[in-house]
Specification:
Blueprint lengths: L2 H67 L6 H14 L3 E7 L2 E2 L3 H11 L9 E3 L5 E3 L5 E2 L2 E6 L15 H13 L3 E2 L3 E5 L2 E13 L13 E10 H9 L7 E7 L7 E6 L13 E2 L3 E3 L2 E9 L1 H7 L3 H24 L2 H27 L9 H18 L3 E8 L2 H8 L1 H18 L6 E4 L4 E7 L5 H14 L13 E8 L7 H17 L5 E6 L12
Parallel strand pairs: 19-20
Antiparallel strand pairs: 1-6, 1-10, 2-5, 3-4, 7-9, 8-9, 9-10, 11-12, 11-15, 13-15, 14-15, 16-18, 16-19, 17-18
Helix pairs in contact: 1-5, 1-7, 10-11, 11-12
Length: 538
């Protein structure tokens, strides 16, 4: 073949494939953009749910604050009932504590006063944690913040008197809350309490003597602090797990200090995570109590696969195929030798088709074109194995033409063959669902395999009615028309799911259908225990 012809063919192929690739790439980019927007929406919804949960906790804490702002007496008897309701409503609150503020020169009088109110033998003191995690008397400092009351899981007396100001971070948060008069949240850390360590943060709210005052100027303006111990993991699970898509990994970050971004919580639903530009989708920041949280979502491979279509690939393949066909035609026109190869290919193809037809003849019934008994038995075994693996129900329907031998004797075998073909066509048109299989079992019997079929008994009723609608004349029968009997079974008990039992149950259903001339069908359901169900009265 001339070199010029080859150049034209190659150039045409390159242009065609390039155009198809460009079109497929544009479609892919559009699809990726749509997925990116959906992912961003999912992560933002999760962030809003988390913000709502945090704000709910603040509102509950404000409700307790308003109670004390109204001038109610502060003691253990009214503190416990008031805060226990908040703890029940918001599971992420591990405990709610009342913290006093004590200057160093007031320490001795405060300790004596607490001992007089409580058990003198308990030896109350303002304490802090030593490097060995042991409670020791608090070191000298200008200001103490001892825990006075507590509720929730942290109700043991061993934490009473613990100085929340013994750590620099908590002390600074307490002072900031007092000076500004607004709630302040501490950075997340491991909070040690009597009931165990909690990965969370403290939400601190000042209670001023004058509720109208915006902030404290002197410790005498302060009545105390409400401090909520909040578990970050529980808070995130309550808010996000019910909203975010199952195919998204996410990370919650405290971004209050840009130079020290702290990971608060990480959820991994799948280890396989995308590595491209979609790998990170931050939501809008969550601002509360002086903190800034950021939720970042990462799509998993399954998330992407569930949203990606085959359209770009098929566009590329079909477009490339069209141009390749054009190249093929050009090549065919330019090459006489190719015609010989085409003839060889055609003969080879004809031989394959002949082999395919020969193989089909061994699997199909020659009269109806349906699968024969041998193919039925093979397919039934495969469907039983699939149903056992998927733990799914499997149905079998047996259809028998009533008095077929009498019909042959009365109208001739040719008419009988025509009747069999008509009924086979009715069954084949009824059962078009992928996976359904209709076979001719014996001369007058057909069987159908129905995997994962809900309400299969309706098919039996429809089958009887469809044959009646053929209105094939048969003198001597009820209504002088050809009828069929249908017996069926749906097996969901795996112990009963064998080929022999399925067929036996189908035959039992057929026998019962023959006994019930009013309906012409009978359906059974085999589960644990075995039940016999007949839900439609045709």
């Amino acid at each position: 073949m001339p070199r010029r012809a080859w150049s034209v063919i190659v150039l045409t192929a390159l242009i065609g494939v390039g155009f198809a690739a460009l079109t497929a790439h544009l479609l892919y980019q559009k699809e990726q953009e749509a997925i990116r927007k959906e992912l961003h929406k999912d992560v933002n919804n999760a962030a809003m749910a988390l913000a709502r949960e945090v704000n709910l906790g603040l509102e509950l804490l404000y409700a307790v604050k308003n109670h004390f702002d109204a001038g109610h007496r502060l003691d253990a008897r009214n503190f416990q009932p008031l805060t226990s309701g908040v703890l029940k409503r918001h599971p992420s609150f591990k405990s709610i504590e009342w913290v006093d503020i004590v200057m160093h020169h007031q320490r001795r009088h405060y300790v004596q006063g607490m001992e007089e109110r409580g058990d003198p033998s308990s030896g109350f003191n303002i304490v802090e944690l030593s490097p060995n995690n042991q409670l020791i008397p608090a070191k000298r400092r200008d200001m103490y913040f001892p825990l006075r009351f507590t509720s929730g899981e942290n109700s043991e007396a061993s934490v009473i008197g613990y100085d929340l100001g013994s750590t620099p971070v908590t002390r600074q948060a307490l002072k900031t809350s007092f000076n500004t008069g607004v709630p302040v949240a501490t950075p997340a850390t491991t909070i040690e309490r009597a009931y165990g360590n909690v990965r969370g943060f403290l939400l601190i709210m000042p209670i001023l003597l004058d509720p109208e005052q915006l902030g404290g100027e002197d410790t005498r303006d302060l009545r105390g602090f409400l401090v909520a111990v909040i578990d970050v993991n529980t808070l995130v699970n309550l808010a996000i797990d019910t909203v975010i898509n199952d195919g998204i990994n996410y990370t919650l970050i405290d971004a209050t200090d840009p130079s020290h971004r702290q990971v608060l919580h990480t959820q991994r639903v799948e280890l396989a995570q995308m590595k491209d530009s979609l790998a990170q989708q931050p939501a809008k920041p969550i601002f509360f109590a002086g903190r800034e949280w950021e939720l970042i979502g990462y799509p998993t491979v399954s998330y992407m696969q569930a949203r990606q279509s085959w359209v770009p690939l098929w566009t590329f393949l079909i477009g490339s195929g069209i141009f390749l066909v054009i190249c093929y035609l050009l090549y065919r026109l330019q090459s006489r030798a190719y015609s010989v190869q085409v003839q060889v290919d055609q003969k080879t193809h004809a031989l394959k088709e002949a082999n395919s037809r020969l193989e089909s003849m061994t699997k199909c019934d020659g009269l109806t074109g349906l699968h024969n008994r041998t193919q039925f038995e093979q397919e039934l075994e495969r469907e039983i194995q699939r149903a056992l693996r998927d733990e799914a129900p499997l149905s079998l329907m047996v259809v028998e033409i009533q008095h077929l031998s009498n019909y042959n004797n009365q109208y001739g075998r040719i008419a009988g063959d025509q009747l069999i073909r008509q009924i086979a066509q009715v069954l084949d048109e009824m059962l078009k669902r992928p996976g359904d299989l209709v076979c001719r079992f014996t001369g007058s019997q057909f069987v159908a395999i129905l995997p994962r079929t809900e309400g299969a008994e309706r098919l039996a009723d429809e089958c009887v009615k469809a044959v009646k609608r053929l209105k094939v004349e048969f003198e001597g029968e009820p209504e002088d028309r050809v009828r069929v009997f249908v017996g069926g079974v749906t097996v969901s008990d795996q112990k009963e799911m064998t080929a022999s039992r399925l067929h036996a149950y189908g035959e039992i259903g057929l026998t019962r259908a023959k006994a019930d001339n009013d309906t012409g069908w009978h359906w059974m359901e085999i589960s644990a225990p075995v039940q016999d169900n007949k839900s439609i009265d045709p």
